[in-house]
Amino acid sequence: TESATKFIQPLTFSTLSGNPTIDNLFSPSDKIVVKHISLAEWADLILIAPATANIVGKIAHGIADDMLTTTVMAFKAKVIFAPAMNKNMLSNPLYQQNVEKLTALGYEFIDSEYGRLACGETGEGRLANIEDIVDTIEYALTFKNDYQGKTVLVTASCTREPIDKVRFISNYSSGKMGFALA
User: Fold this and answer.
1) pLDDT of the chain along its 182 residues, tens only?
2) What is the pTM of this model?
């Protein structure tokens, strides 16, 4: 976003990642490409870190006026916010309503931490630990809802498998694992 470029120059990201930085919705290009649509179709996950109260509010209200918000609006998979803001902004009822609204729509939030904030105060609102953010991303990308929408039958007890009309193979299962899974 434009605000993000005030903190870190796009050239820094491009240099460190070896990839171009897309920071303008209307960047000139050799060919006609609707960049936010192609990015939304390309990505497996969007992480917004640090997520400000402003960006959370824009997305919660469907405001799509820059590259990030238009891409999120066109995106069909997991969007994860890692908020970072002043403790008073974090506890503001309007911000909390936006979080509740987005959570109900399937967006995910990583809890911020207690610590020293950018404004110099100490409190809740510091960006989550990078390891926690990475763990959340890895889980989101590897977890598959293979059984979502499926009905699953779990049996619990010992089993008997016939070998022939007289003999069978059995086990001494108590069924505890089956009950735990169910």
Assistant:
1) 777 777 777 777 778 778 777 776 665 554 545 788 888 788 889 999 999 999 999 999 999 988 889 999 999 989 999 999 999 999 999 999 999 999 999 999 999 999 998 889 999 999 999 999 999 999 888 876 666 777 777 767 777 788 888 888 887 777 777 777 76
2) 0.71
Pairing mode, strands 168-170 and 160-162: antiparallel
Q: Name the active-site residue from 8, 11, 105, 119.
A: 119
Question: Is 159 within a domain?
Answer: no
Q: What is the CATH number of the domain that holds 25?
A: 3.40.50.1950
| Counted domains in the chain | 1
158 is catalytic: no
**Distance (Å) of CA 126 to CA 1, 111, 132, 164:** 20, 9, 13, 67
Does residue 42 belong to any structural domain of this protein?
A: yes
